[in-house]
Design a protein that fits this description.
single chain, D-Maltodextrin-Binding Protein, domain 2, 2 domains, ten-stranded mixed beta sheet, three-stranded mixed beta sheet, 13 helices
Length: about 300
C-alpha cells in the first residue's frame, strides 16, 4: 500500500521531467530560419538593424536578441563568445582573424551596405561646409581656424576609431573633444550648443527616434571637402553610390557560429531583396539596389478603335 501510494507522484514527476526536457530540446534547436540567437550590433547602426530584425522575425519562426554596444565593447563580447554574430562597420583585423583561425572557425563575412560618418552643427551656424583637412588638423592638435570642438558618441565607438585612423593618431585628444554614450546624445548636445561639430553615424540622421525628430530640425548636416578635392559633398545615397563622399564606410555581418544557424539565415536575408530595400529606405546605400518592376499595359482593342 505504501509503495502504491507513491506511484502516482513518481509517474507525474517522470512525465514532467520528460515534457520539460523535450520542450528545452526543441527550443534549443536552431536552423537558418528558426530558433533564437543573439546578435551584437554597433550602436551607430541601431535604427536600421532594428527594422531588419523586426521584418525578419515577422517572416520566420525566429527570435533575435539584439545587443547594442560601442565597437570596442562589441569586439570584447564577440571574442569572449557572448555571441558569434556581430555587425560592424569594418572587417575583422589580422589579430581577430587569427584568433578564430586558432579555434578552427572560418568567419563568414557578408557585406550588407554602405554607411557614412557625418558631421553636424547647430542650425544657428550658417556655414554648412567643412574641409576634412581642418577636422584632421584639429584632432592632431595642429593650428587651424575652422573647428572649435568635436563631439563624439562614445570614446570606444566606431566613429572615434574611424576618425583616429584618418588622423593617424592612436588616442583622441582630450582638449576640445567631448564624448557621451550614444549618437542621440551627440545630436542633442549640438542642437543646444553653438560652435560644436558633432560626429555621428548617418543612419541616426535618416531614422531618428520620435523624441529626436524635433532635435534633428535644429541641426545642419555639413557637406565635406575631402583631402585633394575641390568639391564639398553632402552625405547622401547618391553621393555614396558615386563614391564622392569622403567618409563612407562599408557595413558587414560577421558570422563565426561555425554552423548552419540563424546567423547565416539573417545575413542572407539582409543581403537579399527585402533586406536591401530596408537598407535603401534607411537612407544608406545597399550593396545591390533593389530592382523596380515596370508594368506596361497594352491598350484594349476598344480603346484602339476609338482613336
Amino acid at each position: 500500500m505504501k509503495n502504491f501510494g507513491r506511484r502516482p507522484y513518481v509517474l507525474v514527476l517522470f512525465i514532467s521531467v520528460l515534457f520539460f526536457g523535450c520542450k528545452k530540446s526543441v527550443g534549443e534547436k536552431e536552423t537558418i530560419l528558426k530558433g533564437t540567437a543573439t546578435i551584437l550590433v554597433d550602436e551607430t547602426l541601431k535604427p536600421v538593424l532594428e527594422d531588419e530584425i523586426a521584418i525578419f522575425q515577422n517572416g520566420y519562426n525566429a527570435k533575435i536578441l539584439m545587443e547594442v554596444r560601442s565597437e570596442k565593447e562589441l569586439m570584447q563580447a564577440f571574442l569572449k563568445d557572448t555571441s558569434r554574430i556581430v555587425i560592424l562597420s569594418r572587417k575583422l583585423n589580422e589579430e581577430e582573424a587569427k584568433y578564430f583561425e586558432q579555434l578552427k572557425i572560418k568567419p563568414k563575412t557578408t557585406m550588407i551596405g554602405t554607411d557614412a560618418v557625418a558631421f553636424i552643427s547647430n542650425k544657428s551656424n550658417n556655414d554648412t561646409l567643412i574641409a576634412l583637412k581642418d577636422i584632421i588638423l584639429f584632432m592632431q592638435g595642429k593650428p587651424q581656424t575652422r573647428v572649435k570642438g568635436l563631439v563624439f558618441d562614445n570614446p570606444n565607438s566606431s566613429t572615434v576609431r574611424y576618425m583616429n585612423e584618418l588622423a593617424g593618431i592612436k588616442e583622441t585628444p582630450s582638449e576640445g573633444v567631448y564624448s557621451f554614450k550614444y549618437n542621440n546624445d551627440v545630436v542633442k548636445f549640438v542642437s543646444e550648443n553653438d560652435g560644436m561639430i558633432g560626429v555621428v553615424g548617418l543612419n541616426w540622421l535618416y531614422q531618428p527616434s520620435p523624441d529626436m525628430k524635433s532635435l534633428i530640425e535644429k541641426i545642419n548636416v555639413l557637406s565635406v571637402k575631402g583631402e585633394g578635392s575641390v568639391e564639398f559633398v553632402a552625405p547622401t545615397q547618391n553621393n555614396l553610390a558615386e563614391g564622392k563622399y569622403p567618409l563612407a564606410r562599408d557595413l558587414y555581418i560577421i558570422n563565426c557560429q561555425g554552423s548552419f544557424g540563424l546567423g547565416m539565415g539573417f545575413a542572407s536575408f539582409v543581403a537579399g531583396d527585402i533586406g536591401q530595400r530596408i537598407i535603401l529606405k534607411a537612407g544608406l546605400l545597399p550593396v545591390r539596389v533593389p530592382p523596380r518592376k515596370v508594368i506596361f499595359k497594352n491598350k484594349s482593342n476598344k480603346e484602339n478603335e476609338n482613336e
